[in-house]
Amino acid sequence: AKEDGRNGFRFFRPNMNRAAEERLVLEAWLRKALEKEELTLYYQPIIEPKTGHIAGAEALIRWLHPEKGLIPPDKFIPLAEETGLIVSIGQWVIETACQALKELHASGFDDLYIAVNVSPQQIWSQTLVDVVKNALVQYDVPKGSLVIEVTESVCMAETETTLTALKAMSDLGVRLAVDDFGTGFSSLNYLKRYPFNILKIDRAFISDLPESNDDAALVNAMLAMGHSLGLSIVAEGVETEEHVAFLEERDCDLLQGYYFNPPMEKEKFLKLKDYT
Ligand code: C2E
Ligand code: CA
Ligand code: CA
Ligand code: CA
């Protein structure tokens, strides 16, 4: 096969190289996506179960590719993290979310918070605190209404850099959330070392409620622990009335999930009403 030109060439390029080529193409596209304004933020409501009030929104990135359509974050955030592109993408996310916050506050969502996801590479890049500080000033963001979500794993590595960055943001009036709580290596130590305000219970613990006795026990424990540490608790992946009932009964502070709304464009979010 080696001799027959193109085909032979292909013969010696197994599928793994195809994957590598596709990655290169994707990376080049992703670089352009930022400039061409193909990235967009969707917003998913976060609801206070007792009142039905929309207390917050999580900003979730989407890539609107002209040919491929809507590309979810799981398909490009890992690549953005590996290539370092996440630093500029992350800056765009923070600025866009703060701008949206100003608009939403002016349109009746006057006490809404917006939560933004931040990758470890952004924290380690050392530019994060300045990016946040500038966005807070530029868009006149009230204290507490920007939330930065970081996953547990961030707190386990590079602790000094992480601690310094999180404390600096906390001092700026940004609230901090532990995302995907319970899925990492939960050395619970970090919860008291870092200035967290919010704990987000991962949807893996919610989906089999109320039937799963194990998950029920774990969620009960997370609520008790989080509350005794003074944290506000958000349950992710709330999909059914039973989930809502279980969590409301146990005083879970906030709920997020398809039961209420999927993530949506800002224009659609602007038309939402509280669930009262
Ligand atoms: P995450 O931070 O855990 O975000 C929650 C994910 O759960 C979102 O997926 C959301 O659409 C989905 N979700 C919401 N409600 C439900 C539900 O009731 N059931 C189920 N099964 N899923 C639900 P999405 O938007 O695809 O985002 C996936 C992940 O991508 C996020 O997970 C986050 O880790 C990452 N990501 C999203 N936006 C950004 C960003 O701007 N920057 C960074 N660094 N990462 C981001
Ligand atoms: Ca999140
Ligand atoms: Ca999460
Ligand atoms: Ca996640």
TrEMBL record:
Tagged with keyword Phosphoprotein: yes
Keyword Phosphoprotein included in the entry's annotation: yes
Gene Ontology biological process terms, A to Z: phosphorelay signal transduction system
Residue ranges occupied by any EAL domain in the UniProt entry: 23-276
Superkingdom: Bacteria
Sorted UniProt keywords: Phosphoprotein
Name of the featured protein: Diguanylate cyclase
Entire-sequence positions represented here: 409 to 684 of 684
